[in-house]
Specification:
alpha/beta; Nucleotidyltransferase, domain 5; five-stranded mixed sheet; 4 helices; 5 strands; globular; RNaseH_sf
Length: about 160
């Protein structure tokens, strides 16, 4: 029985119908993004997912500077929470200084209380792209696409052949 028939039967019998609550919206601004004119002015954040062979999944947090298209940070782990993202951003602010704006999607890690608190405490404008529009965060999406082939090569090579930076 589909949901429309179920709703009709409930209303015919004058039964109470539970309504779903609306989805929590991100609190950041959805105004047009400012253009990055200087390095460190605007950072982009995104997650990339992959698997170790056919078993465990892992995620990578990528942080890029949009002006010079430099990758500032690449963190890989099996689970990355909003609090972990805030800790990584603290470390980046100590190294590169505070950005004026951060651009990300509406993922749960980026809309968590820890991130909203971090953005408020550090006086950083957090800009969320529109849902379903990854082209609004094109610099980081392009980086993620170029990261994929090198990630596959690194995962297929034996650990003894890896070179350290």
């Amino acid at each position: 029985m589909n949901h429309k028939k179920l709703y009709r039967l409930y209303t015919d019998e004058k039964l109470g119908v539970r309504r779903r609550r609306g989805r929590k919206r991100a609190r950041g601004s959805r105004t047009p993004m400012p253009v990055a004119l200087r390095p460190g002015e605007r950072w982009s954040l995104d997650f990339v997912s992959d698997t170790f062979g056919a078993s465990r999944k892992f995620r990578m947090l990528a942080v890029n500077d949009d002006c010079c298209r430099e990758n500032l940070c690449l963190v890989a782990d099996t689970s990355i929470s909003g609090a972990r993202v805030a800790r990584e951003l603290d470390a980046l602010v100590r190294i590169y200084g505070k950005p004026a704006c951060i651009v990300s999607d509406n993922g749960t890690e980026f809309t968590s209380r820890a991130i909203l608190k971090w953005a408020g405490d550090n006086d950083v404008d957090w800009h969320y792209i529109d849902p379903g529009k990854p082209q609004q965060n094109a610099f980081i999406e392009s980086f993620n696409g170029s990261l994929r082939p090198s990630r596959q090569i690194a995962l297929q090579s034996p650990a003894g052949q890896w070179t350290s930076c």
